[in-house]
Amino acid sequence: MKEQFAYYDLNPLRDSVMNDEDFFVLMLYTFINNTTTSLALLQQHVDAKDWKGVGEVAHKMLSSYKHLQIIHLIPYLEKLEQLIKQTMKIEEIVEANKLVQHFSVIILQQLNEMLVNKS
Question: 100: closest CA among 20, 43, 45?
Fold first, then answer.
């Protein structure tokens, strides 16, 4: 079953687990849990103006977003990741964070609904 939505593509993940449905579901739950935690931490760092912390959280989020091909948010996470090494305008940070937060919540809701419907 091919599973591609506007914001992500689950096919590479499904292929990488060689269609092991239990492991696939476990990986999705892991993504949901880790992303939920990371989004809260990302917002805390933005609120505290801890730019290096923002960059570090974005760096940790990037690999899973790339794996699920969440291509619309990858450029924003890469921009936030750059805060590890350099600074940027606060408005750019706030806007990138806002987009990552908003669309990640939509993705998490879609994945949760999909997993509930599988059970």
Answer: 43
Bridge partner residues of 66 (DSSP): none
Torsion sign over Cα 98, 78, 38, 73:
positive
Domain ranges of the chain: 11-118
Q: 44 with 19: CB under 8 angstroms?
A: no
**E strands along 5-105, which residues?**
none
Distance of CA 71 to the CA centre of its chain: 10
Tens of pLDDT, residue by residue, the chain (119 residues): 455 567 899 988 989 999 899 999 999 999 999 999 999 999 999 999 999 999 999 999 999 999 999 999 999 999 999 998 888 899 999 999 999 999 999 999 999 999 998 76
